[in-house]
Amino acid sequence: MNNKTSELDLLVAELLSLPAGRHRLKHKDKIKLLEYAGSFANLWQLLQVRENDKLQKAKETNRGNVPDHPYGPVSLHKPDGIIESNRQNVARGLNEPSELKLLRLIMSQTDMGELLAKAKQWRRQGIGVVSILDARFPASLNNSSTSISLLYYQGENLSLLSHISAAVVGSRALTAYGHKATAVLVENICRKGYCLVSGAAEGADTVAHQAAIDCAGETIAVLGCGVDIAYPRQNRKLLRQISERGLVISEFKPGTPPVARNFPARNRIIAALADFVVVTSAKTKSGSLITAQMADRQGRQVYAVPGSIFDSTQKGCHSLIKDGIAKIVTDLTMPEIQKASDLRTLAELRPQADSTRTIVAKALTNPELPETGAGGTTVESRQKQITEVVDASPATDRQIQLTFTPHHQNKNEMKILQFLTTGTKTLEQIYQSLDLSISETAQILTKLEMTNQINMRRGHYELSCPDLYKE
């Protein structure tokens, strides 16, 4: 990455976070400005459009003795990301969002030399920033429940933000039981190919990150302060290791201290990044419970490790299980969790399944759908009929579930359907129990999903109509 560009990104990101008196840009304001400009560099150019005129007049008045800005004046050519039809409007300041005026006001009240020095220092510390416009920005953070427009980071592997991840969190006051349970569980999760996400706090978070590093796993630390601050102090070495092998991230700009109100905000990022969350220990009033509840609200599967009824550090886990928020962990190898590689394989197949499911559902809403013969039809011929009807006539928005009776399935399909009558299963549980290859199992599951005979929720397969396949 070009250092000059990175410094400019950090400089503009810092401008977006600064106040002007009592006024400050809100999350939606930052998004509006970034989307209007198209990039940090373009936004800087737009800020400088008026400043160029001022600089030019100052140079004429002072006979050219006014120095240029370190990044140079803006030429009036089209900035990247701004369409040609807007070029003249941009140059004249027309159709500009009102938020740009506030940002110019912020800029006019800021010592830009000091700000540039700060940006240079952050880059020397290996700090970068990504916005919602960046393809590497995680989609799970760009929604109403997280409301994040900028993400600061230390580390070179930003692709980890898009990896299949598991969050492991727990108590700061960790018992020997909690320590061992966390370390063993994280090692097993990492060996299944998941990226470990946690908060780098004292106790369970620290054990989780260290266990991931020790088994050469991937890990992301989400901080409740700036990424340049080691908190707690004793984790300075650990955070350096994470930034070298994984990623340290924060929504808070560099230099932000670790104040109490930042940690619940930090927890929502942990919950959003993870595909599932495991709480290994928690008291009844614990930040880990906040993470678990946020994950549950966002549709993530939550697990909790039980403990002694006499141990106060496990009572939070017990309450999560009792309230139905978390599933109980009885095996630290977590056999109910699929390998990350299996999830990626299914994710690649899913677009085709989703497309076919839409065709089938739309066709069923058409009153002219051909009736099946007395002897029934095969899945393939039935879908051919449906597809022909969809092509021939429009459908309504009403969705109807499509199911097929058992005699339409081949032997292996029926084996899987019968196996699922005992409860939800993962891909790993299915192919191991039925002695099928993983590729064959994945293909069959995809076909059964395409015909709406099964559903997949957070890595677990279940029957759409359980009673249909019971003997």
Describe the structure.
- Helix 7 (176-191) crosses helix 8 (204-214).
- It is globular, with a radius of gyration of 27 Å.
- The protein folds into three domains: 3-124, no CATH class; 154-328, Rossmann fold (3-Layer(aba) Sandwich); 340-469, Orthogonal Bundle (Arc Repressor Mutant, subunit A), CATH 1.10.10.
- The strands form three sheets. The chain has a nine-stranded mixed sheet, sandwiched between helices.
- The protein is 46% helix and 11% strand.
- It has 471 residues and is an alpha/beta fold.
CATH class of the largest domain: Alpha Beta
Helix-strand topology string: HEEHHHHHEEEHEHEHEHEHEHEHHHHHEE
CATH third-tier fold name of the largest domain: Rossmann fold
By DSSP, the count of extended strands is: 13
Strand content: 5-15%
The parts where pLDDT drops under 50 for at least 5 residues are 72-89, 349-407
The number of helices is 17
As laid out across the biggest beta sheet, the strand order is 3-4-8-7-6-5-9-10-11
Largest sheet entry? 9 strands, mixed
Gross geometry: globular
